PH domain-containing protein (Hymenobacter aquaticus), 197 residues
Amino acid sequence: MKLFPFLRPLLEFTVAVCAIVFGLRFITGFFTQASRVYRPTFLRQFYLLFWPLLCMSVGLPFLVSFLYLGTLSAYELVLLVALASVILGFSVPALILHAQYYARNLHTTLVFDPKQNKLEVYEGRQLVPFARRDLVRVEYVTCRSKRAFWSNYNFLRLHLASGQILTLTSLLTNLEPVAEFLRNSSLERRQRWACFL
């Protein structure tokens, strides 16, 4: 551990910040109503990225061994390549999906209240006007596997009569209630290995 003396304080700081954030979120959860306005938030992103980042943080220190490539035996090299492929194979698809969803919905706001029959989408501060009758087709794309790190990444595409397509990603919120709300609007459910846009 002498090789990385800065890792311990960095990990302690990260754990302390996470504990404070979740503690405050837990306490304030008692005093706030359920939100009906959804944007990409830190906690939602942390929820989606927790397992991929944990996998990367556990595995990457071992991958530093690639720096000593000339001194490794064939057996060690095979193990190192296998470990690298597992770490990157589990983490990289989720990180790519997260980057795509973040780029798509960074400035998107979803207002969703099924009790009030309300579904509004804002791009920036501009409301995108549409009603249910304007929905030609709704695609709900989910992940086939429920155990992969990227299984929580899914999206809804709203095809409007005007030709405009609105894409709502799981970076905003859990989309299953929204899909259920739109079930009578020509909803098409699809499954993919990974829900790339």
Notes: Residues 74-105 form the longest helix (32 residues). Strands lie at 37-38, 108-113, 118-123, 126-128, 135-143, 155-160, 165-169, 187-192.
